[in-house]
Write a structure and sequence with these properties.
Elements (H helix, E strand, L loop, with lengths): L42 E5 L4 H12 L3 E6 L3 H12 L5 E5 L5 H14 L5 E4 L15 H22 L8 E5 L3 H4 L5 H21 L5 E5 L7 H4 L4 H6 L12 H12 L10 E2 L10
Parallel strand pairs: 1-2, 1-4, 2-3, 4-5, 5-6, 6-7
Helix pairs in contact: 1-2, 1-9, 3-4, 4-6
């Protein structure tokens, strides 16, 4: 058993106790933030940032004072529009096209980011793709590998190359999914990749905790994003999210505050954890 380290003087009181008699006295005042917001002058990298959850996160972080670099796959016009919306909040914004299923592309993203930023305060590994398959036999080896390279390897590579620019107080946030906890009969490879991300997050949190870098994840339920409209049938798109406890899918801006919480000092004592904005589904994760 590890030797316990004494963190404060030995002390006791009669129940229920008095704060002013404690050493040190518990700090209960709200955490002070700069006037501009919780992310003032923080440099943030978001993968999959041109639309959906990534875009909503970029806009919210920019509103709170952050400088943003986001990565997109192919949607040039959408990326430009997102950049313009982010710039309306007054910070800096850069974007880069990359196929994150390739290691050299991930390294290129970090190199590009650090051309504009001196440090990297927050990495949000959000990029993800999925394809429907009604049986395991219909999932090709190529699809399986591509799913893992795009969803898991990209997170590994972006984080690996970005870590040397992160200092104490930095934060890494990974987008996993409710499917990591309850599975999905038609997204087997996707759900499996998201489960791998949970294990990666927890392991990395343990590895980096002494360096003062926190690692957490967000596991959204159904969210109304372009990935949905581009993946499922018209019939399924029309009813997407209706079978969940709240009877609907979330809008991306309902998911973004979870990322802001984890990235800010509000979550200074939180690492290795997952937030579940999933519309009321109980998954015991």
């Amino acid at each position: 058993m590890a030797e316990e380290k004494k963190l404060r003087p030995e002390q006791s009181q009669y129940r229920p106790g008095v704060e002013d008699y404690m050493d040190p006295i518990p700090d209960t005042k709200p955490i002070a933030y700069p006037k501009k917001g919780k992310m003032t002058n923080k440099n943030v990298l978001i993968t999959g940032g041109d639309s959906g959850i990534g875009k909503a996160v970029g806009l919210l972080f920019a509103k709170e004072g952050a400088n943003i670099t986001f990565v997109y796959l192919a949607e040039h016009e959408e990326a430009e529009n997102t950049r313009n919306e982010i710039l309306e909040f007054g910070g800096k914004c850069f974007y880069i096209q990359a196929d994150l299923s390739q290691e050299d592309e991930c390294k290129k993203v970090i190199d590009f980011t650090m051309q504009n930023f001196e440090t990297l305060d927050v990495i949000i590994n959000n990029a993800g793709l999925h394809w429907e398959s009604d049986s395991l036999e219909n999932i090709s080896t190529d699809q399986w590998i591509h799913t893992f390279h795009n969803n898991v390897s990209s997170c590994f590579w972006i984080t690996k190359y970005g870590l040397k620019y992160m200092k104490e107080g930095a934060s890494i946030i990974i987008t996993t999914s409710v499917t990591a906890y309850r599975g999905s009969d038609h997204l087997i490879d996707y759900a499996t990749s998201k489960g791998a991300l949970v294990a990666f997050m927890r392991s990395l949190s343990e590895n980096l905790i002494k360096k003062g870098i926190r690692v957490n994840a967000v596991a959204p339920g159904p969210v109304w994003t372009p990935l949905i409209a581009s993946t499922f049938s018209k019939e399924d798109v029309a009813t997407f999210g209706s079978d969940k406890p709240m009877g609907r899918a979330a809008m991306p801006n309902e998911i973004a505050p979870s990322y802001l919480f984890l990235a800010s000092q509000d979550a200074s004592f939180i690492s290795g954890q997952v937030i579940h904005p999933n519309g009321g589904e109980i998954i015991n994760g």
